[in-house]
User: What shape does this take?
Amino acid sequence: MNKWLELLVGLVLVIAPIFVAFYSADWFGAAWDFWKPAGEFFKGGLFWFLLMIGVLFILLGISDMKG
Assistant: This one.
């Protein structure tokens, strides 16, 4: 994959779950209730999975820049 595309995909996959998690918090009055299921199912398995995949893409992109 292209190094810039890997970095872009990685950043999107890191920022998107964080945005969704904070957007769905109770103090914003959102309709989604993300934090209760996240706490019940290992702090949101999908959230952590996407976050780690994003970090992996960022690391792959940085690695491609050096090589």
